[in-house]
Write a structure and sequence with these properties.
The complex is a heterodimer of chains A (115) and B (337). Chain A is α+β, with helices and mostly antiparallel strands. Helices cover 68% and strands 16% of the residues of chain A. Chain A is built from four helices and three strands, in the order H-E-H-H-E-E-H. Chain A has a three-stranded antiparallel sheet. The radius of gyration of chain A is 17 Å and the shape is globular. Chain A starts with a helix and ends with a helix. Chain B is 69% helix and 4% strand. In chain B, a hairpin with a 2-residue loop joins strand 1 and strand 2. In chain B, helix 5 packs antiparallel against helix 6 and helix 5 crosses helix 10. Classes of the chains: A alpha+beta (115), B mainly alpha (337). The interface between A and B is medium-sized, with 17 and 16 residues.
């Protein structure tokens, strides 16, 4: 098996889940680095070059709110879910569940055929 | 200035002015938080080498800045297939005929009579190279400009069509009128057209080209009449139309190449004007007219190819006319890939 191809496909697969992970994690307020660490601790590693542009995009789409505040003697930008973001998260979670059910069905069915 | 500041300055350089302060403040905080974290674990400050490794892990400053910018393409994925098609057509229907005309002219020069005495193999290669580069540059710039305008959306929708089998009566009528006019013009040109004191006639190598144009436009007129009577595209009808249009493109490209290589396909004579002025006028008139026709016919070939692909993809045969497909054809599934 080609390990590079596997890494690319894995990255592609995880990329689709990032928005959901970030929105869900921002139900409680976080600044960039703490968000990154929190995601990493839960096995969802994300590099800063992907996270910060994503946060900006979600904020420009009205799904996140942010403010600069001093914390531990340094100015930090804190992000949290906006009311629109909370609504969007609910819809995306429902979609996620539905995809999970479909995918489980497909995988179970085809694994039986394969066996 | 320490290594961290130098890195941040380097990233800042590549960012748009209005985003610099905000992005750098956030990136700086992220990096300092990571450094604090690492130092907390090690129980000592990071060495220069360790800091260098940490920054190297963040990647090249220009690449880091690029992540914050919207993705831009010189030629985007929706226009790229059309761009590639146009370049291919230019090569096939312009550079190849031009090379053939150049070779024929050199053979005639050497064996029959010096039609274009100045034409040498190196001159022909130089001409093909320059025209190839110019054509490539113009097409690329044109598509890059389209990418930034609303034309891009139209290109993306180029493949959308409700009924690919329907032949528009308006288009067929326009085609018929144009073909009749061009056939008549070709016949008049053979005996010479007088415009005031100017006389336009086939040039040194012109007569065979003009005969080919007359024959092809007469065939085109017949095909347009057929579509007026029965406004449906069939695979064989589309293939015949495409072959006729492709042949016209080859002839016009040959005429353009002949004109630009110095062997005029059409000559203009104005007795009272200076010979040099007439020659200059003739070059401009020839090049503009043939170039316009090459572009026009190139567009027709493009549409013909796309239509043929639609028919093939839909599995349409030359049998009895079926009712048109009810579905709307979405871009992407019908695109001229």
């Amino acid at each position: 098996m080609n390990p590079e191809l596997f890494e690319n496909l894995k990255l592609e697969l995880r990329r689709g889940c990032l928005v959901l992970a970030v929105l869900a994690q921002l139900r409680t307020e976080q600044y960039g680095y703490s968000l990154r660490k929190a995601l990493e601790d839960r096995g969802m590693e994300i590099d800063e070059g992907t996270l910060y542009p994503l946060l900006r995009r979600l904020e420009s789409q009205g799904l996140l709110l942010s403010e600069w505040r001093e914390h531990e003697k340094r100015k930090k930008r804190f992000y949290r879910l906006s009311p629109d973001g909370a609504e969007m998260l609910d819809q995306l979670l429902a979609e996620w569940t539905s995809i999970g059910v479909s995918l489980t069905g497909i995988i179970t069915e085809t694994s039986h055929e394969y066996a | 200035m320490n290594m961290l500041d130098r890195y941040l300055r380097a990233v800042e350089f590549w960012l748009p002015r209005d985003q610099r302060e905000d992005v750098i403040a956030e990136l700086s905080d992220d990096l300092r938080s990571q450094i604090d974290d690492r130092e907390g674990k090690l129980g000592r400050p990071l060495t220069e080498a360790e800091l260098g490794t940490l920054l190297a892990g963040r990647g090249n400053p220009a690449a880091m800045a690029a992540r914050y910018l919207p993705q831009r393409h010189l030629i985007g994925p929706e226009a790229y297939p059309v761009y590639r098609f146009v370049l291919k057509m230019l090569g096939l229907f312009y550079l190849v005929p031009a090379a053939l005309v150049g070779i024929v002219l050199m053979v005639v020069n050497a064996t029959v009579r010096p039609v274009v005495p100045d034409l040498t193999p190196w001159g022909l290669i130089e001409y093909l190279w320059l025209w190839g580069i110019h054509a490539f540059t113009i097409v690329t710039i044109g598509f890059a400009l389209m990418q930034r305008s609303s034309v891009r959306e139209r290109l993306g929708r180029l493949g959308e069509r409700r009924d690919p089998l329907h032949a528009s009566r308006f288009e067929s009528a326009t085609d018929l009128v144009l073909s009749v006019v061009m056939t008549g013009l070709g016949l008049r040109l053979l005996s010479g057209i007088a415009l005031g004191e100017a006389r336009i006639a086939p040039g040194v190598v012109g007569a065979p080209f003009v005969w080919a144009v007359i024959a092809l436009y007469a065939l085109n007129a017949a095909l347009a009449m057929g579509r007026l009577a029965r406004p449906r595209w069939t695979p064989s009808g589309t293939r015949l139309q495409l072959a006729t249009t492709g042949a016209l493109l080859l002839v016009f490209a040959g005429m353009l190449a002949a004109s630009l290589l110095g062997a005029d396909a059409v000559s203009i004579a104005i007795p009272s004007a200076e010979a040099e002025k007439v020659a200059r006028l003739q070059r401009w008139a020839n090049a503009s007219a043939w170039l316009t026709m090459v572009v026009g016919v190139l567009i027709a070939v493009f549409h013909g190819t796309v239509r043929l692909r639609w028919l093939r993809d839909d599995g349409v045969t030359d049998g009895p006319v079926a009712s048109p497909p009810a579905r709307t054809m979405a871009a992407g599934t019908r695109g001229p890939a």
